[in-house]
Design a protein that fits this description.
heterodimer; A: alpha+beta; Glutaredoxin; four-stranded mixed sheet; 4 strands; B: alpha/beta; Rossmann fold; Ubiquitin-like (UB roll); 5 domains; five-stranded mixed sheet; 23 helices; globular
């Protein structure tokens, strides 16, 4: 180690890998991963969220996690976004591609992708 | 891409309750479910709740699972890691009466009152991977010291922070370092990891959970006093701590964070480990240094103090593991941050190993000045079986007890000294109404008699005489004048023993005499042990009115001391009774009485 810059580089590279353990993030993306969700294709959706959030460097503010059955199995895969101080947003019939758009528009820019939300489908 | 981390405790406590097997089972299960690239298993240091081990935390949710067995692993993987459904039955539930129990460890009463500074990375990072330590700002403090701060700057930060030695005596750290700054030539930095108090394991947990923090602080100390060599004196009975230290030193050397020309500043510093064979006296600083030098671990006269004439006759600073673990944080977050915690004269936090009659046995870190009541009833989860709190012993065999009447005493250096106990290195043993205080004093004295190195007479002979008197008292042979003899011996030993071990050895006797003199008197004058612990003073008898004559006790008695006719009251032959209590445990009718 010949300089502080080297140390900082290792820290920055590693930070993403341990940040998950802090659990203080503001926004939570919750993917329904019960049997119904998984059979409807929730796994690729979950993976797409995790990858996109990392790619867009949002992992300090966004946590991706799973949950059980929410009770609207016909709309699975269901994804809910919880932001502090805001009404939760429920996305339904999600796919990996839709997940990418939600990350790009909703999580990054703050614009809810209305056409995927439950109100739009019902 | 990793979406979840499973942290499994690899500290000594959880390792002995089987955490290594859990890690293997978890790896297999993840692979069979195809999750190995999404879920990462991290072997960490101690979380603190050793009584509930093996423990595991799943992030990002922060779900805390306790007493996990290998059989639970498939369910955790299938339900939680795959489907996101928390396995409720394994979640740590601290109080049965709370309806909405916390699923995250941070929300439990055990953690809420804690402030983790020395333990901040324990149970968070993998101690065997230096990159994880660097990710949580590791070695930044060393970098800052070497490139931005002068030696005097560091001293003044430590002075303002108010940091005092965590090994027991509470000597201001900056002053110790300042003494060693002057003069030229070879100097040494030593870490005292010879943790010997019965029931204490604070230092072990820091070394196991965050070894790099200690290495970093020692390098900072080396920079300040002008030393290029450090030694960690750790007992060989801590194999996991030793192994992790070795790994940490190797990794730090590979990164050039130990060795020559650190950060290109021209500063050289390296650290070696010295293993202790487990003698309690080697935790005394001069005996420790003598042992590193290759001699029998015996203390030497102070002054000269180690800061002037220490290891191999050279200026040496010697600090405790926990003291070092605080230092990188103080440098990074500032003296004011550290001084904002604690009381006027005791700053920061202190780690305690909770043991004895308490529900949450384990490791806790609390701000200085936290009342003992909070430690026992809130963090510690109170006394098992609804028993009454009687006293707490702090400072191990050098300390004293805090009786129930003083339960609101703030836990800090000066308040504890004022009531005749001491902070000590952090063992906190809780006693309930079933503990006999004379027996407790005898237990600690037995320990010091065993561990006395024999170099000076007061400690070698004096403590043995005290133990003889205590044994006499607990065996019912106590006589008038014994208490006075104990007090006189104690006074002499305190005044004349060579080292800290001897000077403090009488403390458990003096402090139990101070608060529980009536128990000593009951033993001596009434031949009675109020707590029902001292076997020779006990009598088990059968209450004829309650005895149904079932003979269950007689069949259980290993000494054939119980006899009688079926369906009529049995009797115990006192001359044969060995007072094991088996009859009392067996009797379904509560017909056996212990007095």
């Amino acid at each position: 180690m010949k300089s502080l810059a080297e140390l900082a580089a290792i820290r920055d590279k590693m930070k993403d890998k341990v940040i998950l353990r802090e659990g203080v993030n503001n926004t939570r993306v919750v993917v329904g991963m019960a049997t119904c969700g998984i059979s409807a294709g929730a796994r690729p959706v979950l993976n797409a969220f995790v990858e996109e959030v990392n790619k867009e460097n949002l992992n300090e503010t966004v946590t991706v996690t799973q949950t059980g059955c929410i009770g609207i199995c016909q709309y699975e895969p269901v994804v809910e976004v919880f932001e502090p101080g805001k009404e939760k947003v429920t996305y339904v019939k999600m796919t990996a591609d839709k997940a990418k758009r939600v990350v790009a528009e909703h999580l990054k820019k703050g614009n809810v992708v209305t056409e995927y939300t439950i109100g739009n489908v019902q | 891409m990793i979406r979840s981390h499973v942290l499994i405790c690899g500290g000594t406590g959880c390792t002995s309750s089987g955490s290594a097997k859990l890690i293997d089972a978890m790896e297999q299960e993840l692979t069979s479910k195809g999750l190995q690239d999404e879920i990462k298993i991290v072997k960490t240091g101690c979380f603190g709740l050793c009584a509930l081990g093996p423990v595991m935390i799943v992030y990002p949710e922060g779900t805390f699972y306790s007493r996990v067995s290998v059989d639970d692993i498939p369910e955790i993987v299938e339900e939680h890691l795959l489907k996101g459904r928390i396995v409720e039955r394994l979640v740590y539930n601290e109080a049965a009466d709370t309806e909405t129990h916390a699923t995250s460890l941070n929300e439990t009463a055990f953690y809420k009152k804690q402030r983790r500074v020395a333990l901040r990375n324990c149970g968070v990072i993998n101690p065997e991977v230096i990159d994880e330590y660097i990710a949580v700002d590791g070695y930044q403090a060393l970098g800052k010291c070497l490139t931005e701060l002068s030696r005097e700057d560091v001293i003044s930060i430590l002075e303002k922070s108010g940091l005092r030695g965590r090994g027991g005596a509470g000597f201001p750290t900056f002053r110790k370092w300042m003494f060693a700054m002057g003069g030229e030539g070879q100097k040494y930095v030593v870490c005292n990891a010879d943790e010997g108090d019965p029931g204490a394991f604070m230092d072990r947990s820091v070394l196991e959970g965050d070894p790099h923090a200690v290495l970093e602080a020692m390098a900072i100390a080396g920079y300040v006093i002008g030393a290029n060599q450090g030694y960690i004196y750790v007992r060989a009975e801590y194999p996991i701590a030793v192994k992790r230290l070795q790994i940490a030193i190797t990794q730090a050397r590979e990164y050039g964070l130990l060795g020559k020309d650190i950060f290109g500043t021209g500063f050289d510093f390296d650290i070696d480990i010295r293993l202790g064979a487990g003698a309690f006296v080697c935790g005394e600083e001069t005996a420790l240094l003598t042992s590193i030098e290759g001699h029998r671990g015996e203390p030497r006269v102070r002054p000269p103090f180690p800061a002037v004439k220490g290891l191999f006759g050279r200026p040496t600073i010697i600090n405790n593991v926990e003291t070092y673990a605080n230092i990188p944080q103080i440098i990074l977050k500032g003296a004011d941050w550290f001084a904002s915690m604690g009381t006027e004269k005791s700053k920061g936090t202190k780690v305690f190993a909770l043991g004895g009659k308490i529900n949450n046995t384990g490791l806790v870190e609390i701000p200085m000045g936290t009342p003992l009541r909070e430690v026992i009833y809130e963090i510690g989860g109170s006394i098992p079986g609804g028993k009454k709190f009687k006293a707490a012993q702090t400072g191990g065999p050098s300390g004293g007890c805090i009786p129930a009447s003083l339960i609101d005493t703030p836990v800090d250096y000066d308040s504890l000294i004022a009531i005749g106990s001491m902070m000590g290195s952090g063992g906190l043993i809780v006693m309930d109404e079933d503990n006999c205080m004379v027996d407790i004093a005898k237990f600690f004295l037995e320990f010091t008699v065993d561990e006395s190195c024999g170099k000076c007479t007061p400690c070698r002979e004096g403590t043995r005489r005290m133990l003889e008197i205590l044994t006499k008292i607990t065996e019912g042979r106590g006589e008038d004048g014994d208490i006075e003899k104990l007090e006189e011996l104690a006074k002499t030993i305190k005044a004349t023993a060579l080292c800290g071990l001897g000077q403090t050895a009488p403390n458990p006797v003096l402090s139990t005499l101070r608060y529980f003199r009536d128990e000593y008197e009951a033993h001596i004058y009434e031949k009675r042990c109020p707590a029902g612990q001292c076997k020779n003073l006990l009598r088990y008898t059968i209450i004829p009115e309650k005895c149904k004559g079932c003979s269950a006790c007689a069949r259980q008695c290993p000494a054939d001391a119980i006899s009688g006719e079926i369906k009529s009251p049995f009797v115990i032959d006192q001359s044969k009774c060995i007072k094991c209590g088996a009859c009392m445990d067996t009797c379904k009718f509560g017909a056996i009485e212990k007095k």
